[in-house]
Amino acid sequence: MLPPKVLLSYYVRAMKSTLVLISVLGTLFFAAWWISGADVGRVFQIVQLQEAPEKISEWIIFLSTALLKFAPVFGFVEIKTLSEEEKMELKASAMEDHIILVGLGHLGRRVADLLQKRGKEFVVIVLPRDKERNECLDELKAKGIPVIFGDASLSRTLKRANVKKAKALLITIDDDLINSVIAERAKELNPSIRIVARVFREELAKMLRSSGDVDVAISTTLASSQLFLAGALYDVVISVPPLAPVRVEKGSEMEGKNVGELEEMGVYVIGVLVGDKWIAPPKDRIIKQGDVILVQL
Fold first, then answer.
1. Of 118, 125, 170, 218, which is most buried with the most CB atoms under 10 A?
2. pTM for this structure?
3. Which residues constitute the domain of residue 253?
4. How far apart are CA 210 and CA 62, in angstroms?
C-alpha cells in the first residue's frame, strides 16, 4: 500500500491530466462551433443526437462533446498505465527530508542496508546500464524504495530524485571527477543539502571540503591506510559494526538527549572526545551542540 502522500500525488497528477484534456477539448469545441456558424439550438440538437452532424466542424463539435464526458476517466487511466519507473519517480516527488544515494556498488549496497536498518527514507540513483546488471535493485524496488535511472551529474536526474527537498546526498561511486560534478550540481539546486562524497585521493577530499560543495569528503585512501597501520600493530577485526566520529550540529536529532535516550533511538555512543582522548560516557551524559562523539551505526 502506497503512503497517503504518494496516493495524493497520484490523484493530483490525474486531476492535472484531466484538466489539460478538458481545456484542449473545450477549445476544440468552441473553435469548431465558431467555424460552423451554427446557432445554439443547432449545436444543442447535435450534442443530444437529435440531428446528425453534416459538416466536418459539426462532427468535431459532436466528438469533442462526447470525449469531454469521458475526460475524468482518461485522466485516471493515464495514471494506471504509468510504467514502473514513472511510478518510482512520482513516489520520489512526494518525499521530503529524504536521503539520495548515488551508486549501488559495494559501498552503496552497504550504505543502503544501513539506511534501511535505521528506517530512513531514501532514493537511489543508478545508471541505466545497471538495470539488468545489479540484482540489489530488484530487492530495493520490492521494498518500495524509489530507484531513479539516470546520470546523477545531470541536474534533470537530481530533480527527478526530488533533490530540492532532500536533506542529504550520499555519493558512493568511485570516480573523483564525477563525484565533484554531482556535488556541485546538487548544491546549485539545493544549497542547504548535506553532501557526503567518497573520494579516492585525500588531496581532492581537502579541496572539496574547502570549496563548500561537499560537507564531508571521505578519502578511501586515508581510511584504508589507517586500517593497514592498525593491522600492522594489532589483530584487526573487520567484521564488526562500523563506528564513525560525529560532530553534533545545531538542530541535530541527538542534541539535548542523553546517551541512554540515544541508545533507545538505535544510536550507540561509544565515546565522547574530551581534549584529544575518547572518554566512555555515562548513560545520563547529555549530548550538546559541538560535541564530537564516536557512534556505532
1. 125
2. 0.66
3. 241-297
4. 67
